[in-house]
Design brief:
This protein is an alpha+beta fold. The chain folds into three domains: 3-58, Molybdopterin biosynthesis moea protein, domain 2, CATH 3.90.105; 63-86 and 318-368, no CATH class; 95-314, Orthogonal Bundle (Hypothetical protein af1432), CATH 1.10.3210.10. It contains 14 helices and eleven strands. The strands form four sheets. It has a four-stranded antiparallel sheet, with helices on one face. It has a three-stranded antiparallel sheet with strand order 1-5-2, with no helix packed on it. Strands 3-4 form a two-stranded antiparallel ribbon. Helix 5 packs across helix 6, helix 6 (151-170) runs antiparallel to helix 7 and helix 10 (216-227) runs antiparallel to helix 11 (232-240). The longest helix has 20 residues, at 151-170. The chain is elongated.
């Protein structure tokens, strides 16, 4: 919330935001309303014997930020430009692709027995591959993936897309990236055998309901096996995506190297997307908290898959506006590879560069 306050020019500080325009005798604007004051402007006001001016206190609302940037001091704009580094190429799904993918995934989950099942699977996977290869994408902006309001379909596309991008950074071959996309699209196919009252139950599942839910990956594996159209790696990804490295997963409780690399990758994507998505029985976690939780699951998830995931996702795209935990608004000018929660930000008020990864003074600072 921004408040207007009259302040003596004697106590003005660089970074204060002026809430009035300063004009010369001819009516020419010397300092624009909304500008963040620098030392030169403050010295000018004092030399002209201007007793005081109106300034704004507090941080701007998000819809005000675009207009504020135009009034930043020149040195702050120069810092932003000098330190700006383009994000890695990201997956882009246009409206038409999103529509086709959403309809395709819905067809797969609603028509498990269809003779066109394999064709539809290949078509949807092809759409995602084309979107990735169109600009050689090696990252995904996890704020933008949205195919459908229906959880199962959205979740399947999220997991497939993230799985393919993580797979690229993991070192999978081109053919394997296609296959992990198929496995990600179909990883929850077995939920078609779970009653809707269990899938959408607003409260906690009882023991019997949870036992049945834990069978969905096995159900999906059996559905694909009966089709004789999918290779072992695709089916293992579907079967094992809930397995854990320490053996505490399901449905088989296997450990370590007994878990396929597809399952290791899809498990990370699946858990992240489930954490941030709101469901009838839970609220979604903020993205930063979800990433921290993934990072802390090193005994349960494959560490290489975690590392590849962290190198694949973008939470705060370059040029996005953020608020730091010290209260200052700023602009993201670069992302630190492998550390999506710790970008480089230039503050609006101070013109300071906050390197949240490498600057020890920013060690306790986060983006809110």
């Amino acid at each position: 919330m921004i408040k207007r306050k009259f302040v003596s020019t004697r106590v003005l500080q660089p970074g204060m935001r002026i809430d009035q325009a300063i004009l010369d005798k001819t009516g020419r604007e010397l300092i624009a309303k909304g500008a963040y004051l620098d030392d030169f402007q403050i010295e000018y006001l004092q030399k002209k014997s201007i007793g005081g001016i109106y300034v704004s206190e507090g941080e701007p609302d998000p819809d005000e930020i675009h207009s504020l940037e135009a009034h930043l001091p020149a040195f702050t704009k120069e810092l932003m430009e000098k330190n700006r580094v383009e994000d890695k190429s990201k997956v882009a799904l246009n409206t038409e692709v999103i529509k086709r993918v959403g309809e395709g995934v819905q067809f797969l989950y609603d028509n498990v027995e269809s003779e066109h099942f394999l064709e539809a699977t290949n078509n949807v996977t092809g759409e995602l591959i084309n979107a990735i290869e169109a600009n050689n994408a090696i990252a995904v902006d996890i704020n933008l993936i949205k195919v459908s309001d229906e959880y199962t379909f959205k979740h399947s596309v999220d997991v497939a897309t993230m799985g393919m991008i993580i797979g690229r950074n993991y070192g999978l071959s081109k053919e394997e990236i296609r296959d992990i996309g198929v496995s990600g699209l179909l990883h929850d196919l077995g939920k078609s055998n779970i009653p809707l009252e269990i899938l959408n139950k607003p409260g906690k599942l009882d023991d019997d309901e949870f036992a049945l839910m834990k069978q969905h990956s096995l159900f999906g594996f059996k559905i694909l096996k009966e089709k004789h159209a999918f290779n072992d790696e695709i089916m293992k990804g579907v079967l094992q995506h809930h397995e854990k490295m320490n053996g505490r997963g399901y449905p088989l409780g296997v450990t370590g190297e007994a878990i396929s690399k597809f399952a290791k990758i899809l498990s990370v994507a699946d858990i992240y997307d489930a954490l941030v998505t709101e469901r009838p029985y839970k609220k979604g976690f903020p993205k930063r908290e979800a990433l921290e939780m993934i990072f802390g699951m090193s005994t349960e998830l494959d560490t290489k898959a975690i590392s590849s995931f962290m190198d694949s996702v973008i939470i705060f795209p370059v040029d996005s506006y953020v608020q730091l935990s010290n209260g200052e608004m700023g602009k993201v000018v670069a992302n630190n590879p492998g550390y999506p929660m710790r970008p480089i930000v230039v503050g609006f008020k101070t013109g300071k560069i906050y390197n949240l990864l490498e600057d020890l003074n920013c060690a306790s600072m986060v983006i809110e």
